[in-house]
Design goal:
eight-stranded antiparallel barrel; alpha+beta; 62% strand; globular
Length: 180
């Protein structure tokens, strides 16, 4: 019932954001006079997984949409689905939540089509979540490519759990994704 509704909503959100990214990338590549807005836009789709802590391994599907306000710094909105995968007497179980938040990024290094960003993100579970929490991330994001970039990230994540019986999470995580 409600699980399918939330899962369908998350899939629809990711499909819509994917189409938006592809269309914006196409506009940016085909325009002879690229607009400053498109040049400064940050849009990404990512999949991330974290190390196990207290029997829970987080898995996240997320999207970031932001804007570079100054040449090396950008702010972004972060949205996605966070799943807490856990072992329960040799059976796999999971808890799920939709997250919404934001963050700041700073480009530490950029030469041609290769760059490294330092990024901080804060997000919170919203709606009727199985796992209520606030997530704090700090990561280095490596990106390669022209208008369409491949992203690889490594970072540390703290999840402050607000659900009875689910402990706080501290662990390293990695992400892979693409963006413009």
């Amino acid at each position: 019932g409600s699980e399918m509704c939330i899962r369908d909503r998350n899939v629809r959100l990711l499909v819509i954001i994917s189409l938006l990214l592809i269309s914006l990338g196409t506009v940016a590549q085909n325009a002879s006079n690229e607009s400053k807005f498109v040049d400064r836009l940050v849009a990404e789709l990512n999949v991330g997984v974290g190390t196990k802590c207290h029997g829970v391994s987080p898995l996240e599907l997320s999207a970031n949409l932001g804007y570079c306000f100054i040449p090396r710094m950008y702010a972004f909105v972060h949205a996605g689905g966070l799943y807490g995968l856990s072992d329960d007497n040799h059976g796999q179980t999971y808890s799920k939540s939709c997250v919404l938040g934001g963050g700041l990024g700073y480009t530490l290094y950029q030469v041609d089509n290769v760059g490294v960003d330092l990024r901080g993100t804060v997000s919170s579970s919203i709606g009727d979540a199985d796992w209520k929490h606030v997530v704090y991330d700090a990561a280095l994001i490596f990106h390669v490519g022209g208008k369409l970039k491949m992203n690889l990230g490594l970072g540390f994540r703290h999840i402050n759990s607000r659900t009875a019986g689910v402990g706080n999470y501290n662990g390293f995580y990695g992400t892979i994704g693409f963006g413009i």
